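I would like you to sit down with the record closing this message with an eye to the fold:
=====
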Amino acid sequence: MTSCYRPLLLASASTLFFAAPAAAQAVAQDNHDEAAHSDDHHDDEAEEAIIVQGTRNRRRVQDEPIRVEVIAGEEIEEKAIMRPGNIAMLVSETGGVRVQVTSPALGAANVRIQGLEGRYTQLLADGLPLYGGQSASLGLLQIPPTDLSQVEVIKGAAFALYGSSALGGVINLISRRPDDRFAAEILMNTTTRNGQDITGYLSTPLASGLGVSLTAGAHRQSGQDIDGDGWYDIPAYDRLSARPRFQWDGEDGSSVYLTLGMMTEERIGGTLPGRLVPGGSPFQQTQDTDRLDAGLVAETPLGSTTTLHLRASAMRQDHLHRFGTTIEDDRHENLFTEASVSGGIGSTSWVGGVAFQSDRFRSKTFSAFDYNYDVPGIFGQLEHEATRDLTLAASARVDFHDEFGTQFSPRLSALYRPGFWTIRGSLGGGFFAPTPFVDEIEAAGLSRLEPLGDLAAEKARTASLDIGYARGPFEANVTLFGANIENATRLVEIAPDRVRLANINGTSRVRGSELLLRFKQNGYTLTGSYVFVDSSEPDPTGPGHRTTPLTPRHTAGLVGMWEEHGKGRIGLEAYYTGKQKLEDNPYRQNSRAYVHLGILGEIVLGGISLFVNAENLLNIRQTRYDPLLLPQRAASGQWTVDAWAPLDGFTLNGGVRIRFGGD
């Protein structure tokens, strides 16, 4: 029911902490000591004791000092029937998270967390960088949500345990694991914009402790020129994907998880056949993508109090881009390995390990932009329960970057839980290794970019204070956050058809707050949310600061949902997106504010469910107010203005989901 062109402000119903970068699966688990602790704190017998398996310390969610937003089971099912082809809508359902379109020509988008740019967000799958160290902006749109059990969003610098690409935060996609029961699911969907999806999931045991699953999907979208200007407002694409997984669990607590991924896609945007851009020529923009990846997560006890963890992954992604008459052929590769040990003594738990990550880019067309970053590192984390109400945590990482030298990244956190209140505070810092792939270059290609030259690493300091209250059916939460970015990179125009990437002098600043209010009882949920972001950066044209483009100061949402397991759900939502400062837009300096309305309905008939979803009931569409095409091509090579509102307008989708086996 939501649009991937605006931030959705619905925070998740629970929180989860990742103490270490492993595949995590939150499961309910009875634990006498933990339950007693919970009763002492809250006198709330209904509170669920959730143990996070992937933290290696196996602590309760409520007892972890860093808050992580969690999108879990039924929420994922709800978002999967809204948009079965990708996870853009799924991740945008978290407060402070904005899915921003970076290339209207191809529909590419990235995730901005608490006002920070998308390149600072690390996208993981089961704790592994299966989509690369710096995920491409189309990666978000090529991942179906079919086999996800939950999604976890860590806000703020999570570098100490996740690496340099997590400078702004982490989104970790947790898959359903094969178990000892057969289960299968097929989902078929179609839209009024001539898009179709079919996805399938199969899980079955092979032997005692060993299970296998397979997820596969086929997705297509026909190109749509909604405003009749000869340019695709919705690009065409055809995509196939498959992912087998293997899970083995030993009687001694050992486990091994293997995953393989394959995806191929052809995407077409730009001018329609026979149509021209204002310059008087056709400009077709296409991208062919082939991706292969593999990952391993394993652990085994070393004794009664310590556990050894191993993680490894490899990814190769080949692209063939067309930007008008320019063809760019390139390859991205990522290799990751990590070994760590975790344990605990009394009220103190710890994690320590070593890691190595290699990011490589090779272009057959523009070899001047080739790079190979090899980064060994060491990391550690220490948590201590000072009292029954107070937990303190410290984590740090040292990376030995072969291009940007030795980098130290710390994070300090604290949790205080008096009665029904939860108070968390966090301070952290990290660095980001610049690459050519800022938003404008991903959208327009490398042909107009000068060789990078000497760039300094981008560095950030982040802080947050989170205050929550939960009792009975009521929940409230307020978060204050801030970030300072030094040496941020920006494109600078040096000629009408040339740009260069440079570090800007001064500090880019983000300050903001999030508010969540929720009532949940007897299958009914009502959620209200508001996010304020004040983001500024040094003005490249003179002294002082300017408002960061494409960052609305005010956004708000109201969502009502009724749901009963085995029967169905009905949902209504309304979202407000305030004005945004625009850059290099000849039609306006500030965007319009707008309201997005949606409605969802699903009925369950045994193993079959029928669903229908209406998006953007008010038919808000950017091209109703201004042209999308620029009068002339930008210096970077782009032919469109930035997307500040939906481009697809009102859309209706519906389909059927069929389940076999399982619960």
Notes: Confidence is low (pLDDT under 50) at residues 1-47, 49-55. The chain is about 5% helix and 55% strand.
